[in-house]
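Long-time lurker, first post. I've been practising inverse folding by hand and with some scripts of my own, and I keep getting stuck on stretches where the structure tokens seem ambiguous. Below is the full token string for one chain I'm working on. Before anyone asks, I'm not after the true native sequence, just a reasonable design that respects the backbone. If someone could post their per-position residues I'd love to compare against what I wrote down in my notebook.
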């Protein structure tokens, strides 16, 4: 497995593969890899001849008061895990390599970024779209694989790739969960033991809503209250950032759950903000 930190060698490496007629899959990550990331790599491995993984904590997708400094990092461990999962090339640049000091170009999909995480993290998706566009331009992958935990990110990147004719198939893969149901996230390591013990209440809250929908409840406002009541009872220290129902592709708000609907939540446990979601089929 190769490790590159500079953009020109990355571009050359991938160009050489394409010249040989080899297809390329890309799994963009911010590192501190967990089983969810590894499942994306295992899937991506089956989709192309060569697999590139990027490990880059992208500063432009963090707002001024967010957790950029606290975001966990462990590149040596990431490299071991990537090598064990058949990755051909890890790209792990420094921010100065990735962005010119006078970087001035941004990619945005504002229509899909208005609600959910976009509402509480105003620069987040602009940073994600810009860095992913840069990665697509450098690697020129045939396929790029992302987790469905960040469902809004996935919907935005699919739309971006389509609208800008980037020629990259953007694929989403299922959420990976701990045995107690907590969605895997690099940020879970920042939970206190007590927060970690109670965090599965988020997933349970999603299941409470799913059960209510299955029992016939359609009113999104009532369903959101059920989720909030569940958390208030089981996870008193949590504060709900949002608990919203949206169309799974357009991300537009849903008032009555009458077709495929995404229920997406973001919850603060202390200083750690966790997201999760469930696709509700009626
Ligand atoms: O989902 C992530 O880890 C990041 O948002 C991504 C897609 C790697 C862009 O920095």
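-- Answer (accepted) --
I ran through it position by position. Result:
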């Amino acid at each position: 497995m190769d490790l590159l930190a500079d953009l020109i060698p990355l571009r050359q490496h991938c160009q050489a593969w394409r010249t040989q007629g080899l297809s390329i899959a890309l799994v963009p990550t911010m590192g501190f890899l967990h089983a969810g990331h590894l499942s994306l790599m295992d899937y991506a491995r089956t989709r192309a001849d060569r697999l590139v993984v990027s490990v880059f904590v992208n500063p432009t997708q963090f707002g001024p008061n967010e957790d950029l400094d606290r975001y966990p990092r462990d590149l040596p461990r990431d490299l071991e895990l990537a090598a064990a999962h058949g990755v051909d090339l890890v790209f792990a640049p420094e921010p100065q390599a990735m962005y010119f000091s006078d970087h001035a170009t941004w990619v945005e999909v504002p229509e899909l970024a208005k609600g959910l995480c976009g509402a509480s993290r105003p620069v987040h998706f602009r940073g994600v779209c810009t860095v992913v566009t840069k990665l697509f331009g450098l690697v020129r992958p045939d396929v790029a694989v992302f987790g469905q935990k960040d469902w809004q990110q996935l919907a935005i990147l699919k739309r971006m790739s389509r609208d800008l004719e980037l020629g990259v198939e953007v694929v989403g893969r299922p959420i990976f969960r701990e045995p107690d149901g907590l969605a895997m996230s690099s940020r879970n390591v920042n939970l206190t033991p007590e927060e970690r013990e109670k965090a599965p209440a988020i997933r349970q809250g999603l299941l409470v809503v799913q059960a209510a929908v299955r029992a016939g409840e359609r009113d999104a406002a009532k369903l959101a209250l059920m989720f909030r009541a569940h958390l208030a009872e089981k996870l008193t220290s949590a504060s709900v950032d949002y608990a919203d129902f949206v169309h799974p592709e357009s991300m537009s708000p849903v008032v009555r759950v009458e077709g495929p609907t995404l229920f997406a939540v973001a919850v603060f446990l202390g200083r750690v903000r966790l997201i999760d979601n469930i696709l509700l089929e009626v």
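A couple of notes from the structure itself: The pocket of pantoate is lined by residues 28-30, 58, 61, 128, 131-132, 150, 153 (CB under 6 Å). The mean pLDDT is 98. Happy to go over any region you disagree with.
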